[in-house]
Amino acid sequence: MKYISTRGDAPALNFEEVLLAGLASDGGLYVPEVLPTFSKEEIASWAGLPYNELAYKIIKPFVDDCVEDADLKQMIDETYAGFNHIAVAPLKELGTNEWVLELFHGPTLAFKDFALQLLGRLMDYALTKRQERLVIMGATSGDTGSAAIEGCRHSDHLDIFILHPYNRVSEVQRKQMTTIIEDNVFNVALEGNFDDCQEMVKDSFANQDFLGGRKLGAVNSINWARIMSQIVYYFSASLAVGGPHREVAFSVPTGNFGDIFAGYLAKQMGLPISQLVVATNKNDILHRVISGNDMSKGELVHTLSPSMDIMVSSNFERLLFDVYGRDGAAINDLMAKFKTEPVQLDKQRWEKVRELFDSYACDDEETCKLIETVAQETGYLLDPHTAIGVAAARECNRDTSVPMIVLSTAHPVKFPEAVLKAGLESPQLPAHMADLFEREEQFTVLPNELSTVQQFVAKNVHND
Ligand SMILES: *Cc1c(COP(=O)(O)O)cnc(C)c1O
Questions:
Q1: Looking at the predicted structure, is the pLDDT value of residue 198 above 90?
Q2: Has domain 86-107+226-421 been given CATH number 3.40.50.1100?
Q3: For residue 194, what pLDDT is reported?
Q4: Mean pLDDT of 456-463
Q5: How far is the CA of 255 from the centre of ligand 1 (A)?
Q6: For position 137, what pLDDT does the model report?
Q7: Is 256 in the pocket of ligand 1 (CB under 6 A)?
Q8: Where are the domains of the chain?
Q9: Active site includes 112?
């Protein structure tokens, strides 16, 4: 399996190279040259498989021969054995044909564990084989940081530096990152906001001279391996409610278009999906482009669903590449223009996007109202991101006879502010992290200054 860049000008790579590369050298994102597809019969034959075995079936064609079969199996088995629910991704029924897919039973209580627990193992495996080391640098507004650190902490070949905005992440989120004390884990609290953190990581990727020959690896959803891992739970959820013999619909809280793009791929690979709903908060670029062909950066708004607070959805480029007939030059032009001004898609291309997706944007007030209503109706407590998913599902549902599955991306304990604003009590931390607030923390506060941060990284990376 070869991977090609959405901007058409970078060399095609194999899985291992894509895993370690992150962004393509032409600024594009890597996608498979040809997607694997599965027949209905084949998908049906997977009914009843444990999650790890299903994951192997779906992930194997993407990894191809870059990893020995037995090793791939073992990494997948270990990844999902570390989840705290026997079903790994259990489905809960909220109402008639309305389901919640709980993706928060991993070590850090958010769906990012599905991908990052495997990503860390895959990177470690590839680097061991190559006898190389990699430096991970990432910015986080909360969930990515802890999931990435949990995924990389046991690797002998990775040093991981996570930048979070000082005093601007929730206490649970900060503690989940800063209480992991390992030789290769560095938490930086930057005296700036999330955009400053992201800017610093971007600048560091663009010019890696400060690392003296070592290379940077990516853990955000531009890394193909993250998207790949997320395709699996669309299949598991469908199989659990009678697929592939019946269609299902999904509603997905998304900011960067990573999670919903995995659903789009599942559909292209043969899973009968009748509808894909994009659920966003006030940072609604995805909703604006899907509903009104307005692809323009808005102002960043801080919301009660902070993991979707972004202005630009990087993974949308992967969809545009398909919608524009895989014309890398056209995407290159479009993205160059979008850097400096709002863009509109060609009418015909935009209509294709509208055929594929419905969308809805929800403000904080509606989010809290929904958390409250659902708790009253069913006794089930939603986290604010999932609440937006439920709101969008109800708003956009095209056919109530089809099961609508809302992806629940985080445990409500991670976002107590929204739960309290909804007039409810915040739940208890799960048993395996009940002592989180007593654990020792370690992080370094640094000024919002690129050279200082880069010096800190260069000083702390390990040399073999
Ligand atoms: C990261 C995250 C999202 C958004 O995921 P995308 O990669 O933008 O699709 C939604 N909810 C939670 C809780 C998250 O951590």
A1: no
A2: yes
A3: 83
A4: 93
A5: 6
A6: 95
A7: yes
A8: 86-107+226-421
A9: yes
